[in-house]
């Protein structure tokens, strides 16, 4: 039997980082609002969760976020975690790319890559063709777009960037979906290089200081602290209800009605802070809402293979490495976790977290843990001098998939824009909407909170995202 609960001002479905951030932004600005978060799991955090074992601290999902996003900095502060932050500046924690079976240090920005000896002189000249190449029509893949504008030689680098962020395939991700801001620049100025140059000149004229490279940010006890810190600021059972999966949403005269197996909840505002496919399936069930252009976005799954070694292991100093598909390696790359965040391994030991699977190799995730560990170790030991066997090994298999922003994604964003215009009390954000990273989520959460606070549709802009390896 179901019972009805009193109405809320704002009901938020999902207590991952997105839902918790919307709630926390609202609480900060309008403490009197009656909020309720509904979460299907018995803990907050969704895709963000840390794993502690035998003195090693590894991550199921996100390993960190760059500190160049205001909304994430505010959320960290509102979670009360300013004293627990750990930072690894990209300028110091260098990254590597695996090319021709070796780890090569990569300069951190595209202009520096072009200057570096990794790219032959003829390929460097080819990059300048961007100045007169016409924009490709339609929705080109990242690979087609990079080759058209900058030439084939930059493909392995583009591959590494999108392997690192999406565990994706640059032959399927589309440039309009993953870098809409760059596409705007190309259309407006006829060239990415010219557009960037003009933007920089305008900033200099306005007296804006040149920003250095950002820092990778996490917390002493791992990324899991972030959602936990946010959740701790709400009262369990009154403001957050765990083990409460939402089954259905309805539009009624009283507002939004949300159905779970035990209760029906009504609210004025409704926020869906869920992975994109969960939102799509709940929204498709609402009669008054037009069907989305696609019912499902492809997801890529990865496993983290955490390997611990004594100090004998010769892990090159830095952030980690990425391997483009052309290298045909087993692991997509690895993070040198205890270099960046030294407390992640016991005294005298080091931790590496390798990533396996992704959009191109889901079949590897069918392997049992022992095989995954052996294959990963064999792969890494060809790239660096590692003692055998590792002193610690654990496979973490997150259930969350990474949404792949491929063909048709811009149409989905237009559909959401119309939804927001038609319904000023319905707010859709979360994993896969306008990006996939933590900084994308906190920005989207702030946009949702702003719409609720102002009762107005917010202008949507395509952000010019930086490219970091
Ligand atoms: C393997 C992996 C690695 C990643 N690495 C990074 C990284 O290094 N850096 C980075 O910036 N980002 C990374 N990300 C992305 C980052 O984790 C996400 O951007 C972020 O966690 C998304 O938060 P969210 O709250 O939108 O979604 P989620 O974390 O998915 O949270 C959604 C919540 O909704 C709940 N829920 C689902 N269905 C229902 C329902 N019907 N009723 C009630 N509740 C429901 C879920 O249980 C969950 O708690 C990674 C993601 C993955 C999967």
List the helices and strands and how they pair.
Layout: E1 3-4, E2 8-13, H1 17-29, E3 35-38, E4 50-53, E5 56-59, E6 65-66, H2 70-78, E7 85-89, E8 95-99, E9 102-106, H3 110-115, H4 121-127, H5 142-150, H6 155-166, H7 175-178, H8 180-189, H9 192-205, E10 215-219, H10 225-231, E11 240-241, E12 246-252, E13 255-260, E14 263-273, H11 276-284, E15 299-300, E16 302-310, E17 320-322, E18 333-335, H12 337-340, E19 349-357, H13 369-383, E20 392-396, E21 402-403, H14 409-422, E22 426-429, H15 438-454
Parallel strand pairs: 1-14, 2-3, 2-14, 3-11, 8-17, 14-22
Antiparallel strand pairs: 4-5, 6-10, 7-10, 8-9, 12-13, 13-14, 15-21, 16-19, 16-20, 17-18, 18-19
Bound molecules: flavin-adenine dinucleotide.
Flavin-adenine dinucleotide binds next to α1 and α15.
What does this molecule look like?
The model has no long low-confidence stretch (mean pLDDT 93). The chain starts with a strand and ends in a 15-residue tail after the last helix. With 469 residues, the protein is an alpha/beta fold. It contains 15 helices and 22 strands. The longest helix is centred in the last third of the chain and has 17 residues, at 438-454. The protein is globular, with a radius of gyration of 23 Å. Bound molecules: flavin-adenine dinucleotide. Flavin-adenine dinucleotide is lined by residues 13-19, 38-41, 46-48, 61-65, 245-246, 273-275, 278, 302, 398, 400, 402, 430-431, 436-438, 441.
């Amino acid at each position: 039997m179901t019972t009805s609960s009193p109405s809320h001002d704002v009901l938020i479905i999902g207590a991952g980082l997105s839902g918790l951030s919307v709630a926390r932004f609202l609480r900060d600005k309008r403490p009197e609002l009656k909020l309720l978060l509904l979460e299907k799991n018995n803990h907050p955090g969704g895709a963000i969760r840390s794993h502690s074992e035998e003195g090693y601290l590894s991550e199921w999902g996100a390993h960190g976020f760059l500190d160049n996003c205001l909304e994430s900095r505010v959320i960290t502060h509102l979670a009360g975690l300013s004293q627990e932050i750990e930072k690894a500046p990209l300028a110091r924690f260098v990254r590597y790319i695996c090319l021709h079976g070796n780890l090569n240090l990569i300069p951190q920005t595209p202009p520096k890559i072009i200057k570096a000896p990794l790219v032959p002189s003829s390929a460097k000249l080819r990059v300048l063709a961007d100045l007169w190449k016409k924009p490709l029509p339609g929705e080109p893949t990242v690979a087609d777009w990079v080759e058209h504008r900058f030439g084939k030689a930059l493909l392995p680098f583009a591959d590494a960037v999108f392997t690192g962020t999406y565990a994706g395939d640059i032959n399927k991700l589309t440039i309009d979906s993953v870098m809409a801001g760059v596409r705007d620049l190309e259309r407006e100025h006829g060239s990415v290089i010219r557009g960037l140059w003009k933007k920089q000149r305008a900033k200099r004229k306005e007296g804006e200081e040149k920003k250095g490279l950002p820092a990778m940010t996490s917390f002493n006890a791992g990324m899991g602290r972030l959602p936990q810190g946010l959740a701790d600021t709400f009262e369990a059972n009154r403001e957050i209800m765990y083990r409460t999966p939402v089954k259905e949403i309805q539009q009624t005269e009283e507002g939004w009605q949300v159905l779970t197996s035990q209760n029906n909840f009504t609210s004025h505002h409704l926020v869906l802070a869920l992975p994109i496919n969960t939102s799509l399936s709940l929204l498709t069930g609402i009669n008054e809402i037009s069907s989305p252009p696609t019912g499902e976005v492809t997801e890529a799954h990865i496993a983290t293979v955490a390997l611990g070694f004594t100090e004998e292991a010769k892990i090159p100093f830095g952030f980690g490495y990425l391997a483009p598909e052309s290298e045909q390696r087993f692991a997509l790359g690895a993070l040198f976790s205890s270099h960046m965040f030294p407390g992640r391994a016991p005294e005298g030991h080091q931790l590496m977290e390798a990533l396996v699977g992704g959009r191109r190799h889901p079949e590897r995730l069918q392997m049992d843990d022992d095989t995954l560990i052996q294959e990963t170790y064999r792969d890494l030991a060809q790239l660096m001098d590692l003692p055998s066997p590792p002193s610690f090994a654990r496979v973490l298999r997150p259930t969350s998939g990474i949404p792949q922003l491929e063909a048709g994604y811009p149409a989905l964003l237009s559909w959401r824009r119309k939804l927001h215009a038609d319904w000023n009390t319905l707010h859709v954000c979360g994993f896969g909407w306008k990006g996939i990273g933590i900084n994308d989520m906190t920005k989207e959460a702030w946009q949702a909170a702003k719409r609720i606070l102002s009762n107005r549709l917010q202008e949507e802009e395509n952000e010019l995202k930086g490219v970091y390896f």
